[in-house]
Amino acid sequence: MTRLSPIPYEEWDAEVLRPLTGGRTIPPSNALGLLLNHPRLAKAFLTFSTQLVYRGTLPDRMRELTVLRVAWRNRCRYEWAHHVVMAREAGVTAEELEGVRHGADTLVNRAVDELDTTSSLSDEVYAELAKELDEQQLMEFVFTVGAYRLQAMAYNTFGVAPDAGMDDVGMGAEA
Fold first, then answer.
1. Does 3 fall in a domain?
2. Which of 82, 119, 120, 161 has the most C-beta neighbours closer than 10 Å?
3. Would residue 4 count as lying in a domain?
4. What are the angstrom distances between the C-alpha of 107 and each of 56, 73, 125, 126, 135?
């Protein structure tokens, strides 16, 4: 059920999006359409989100597995559909996607689950992450979990549906 309709693509405010696109044409997106209901919030949030996804130093595969675990735990159909595509582009395998869905005992799943449940990391999981990530990457990991938890909350609350062509990518009736 859609509670807040996305702004139609034809009505998007190019001034809000210009600083974030680097001149790229952005395709229609229900999530961006939702955010554009509040242009100042959209600009601030998209600047932050763009930093994490396109300018960050967290390895692409780890970032996408992280986002997918957050999406799965929070039953966010939009984020799951969108990021399965990005994860595949980053080299995430079908087996790894199943591991995200079923809570396989991986460092990323344990770390996301701890952050999502307790808003903190145990010393053990933090130390494991610190063996793989530098300080900036550790910060980006925590901020990625938080940012996508926030997005899941917003997209689920306002009823943001997956974009056209992205609605059957594995969340199904289990959501």
1. no
2. 82
3. no
4. 20, 15, 7, 10, 17
pLDDT in tens, 26-69: 888 899 899 989 988 988 898 898 889 888 999 999 999 999 99
Contacts of 169 (CB under 8 A, 6+ apart): 80, 81, 84, 85, 162
Buried b (16+ CB within 10 A) or exposed e, 108-137: bbbbbbbbbeeeebeeebeeebeeebeeeb
Q: In this structure, are 16 and 46 located in the same domain? A: yes
Do residues 160 and 77 both lie within one domain? yes
| 24 φ, ψ (degrees, to nearest 5) | -75, 150
Report pTM.
Answer: 0.90
- pLDDT tens, position by position, 105-154: 999 999 999 999 999 999 999 999 999 999 999 999 999 999 999 999 99
Quote the Cα angle for 43-49-51, to 5°.
Answer: 105
Residue 14 belongs to some domain of the structure: yes
- The Cα 112–Cα 45 span in angstroms is 21
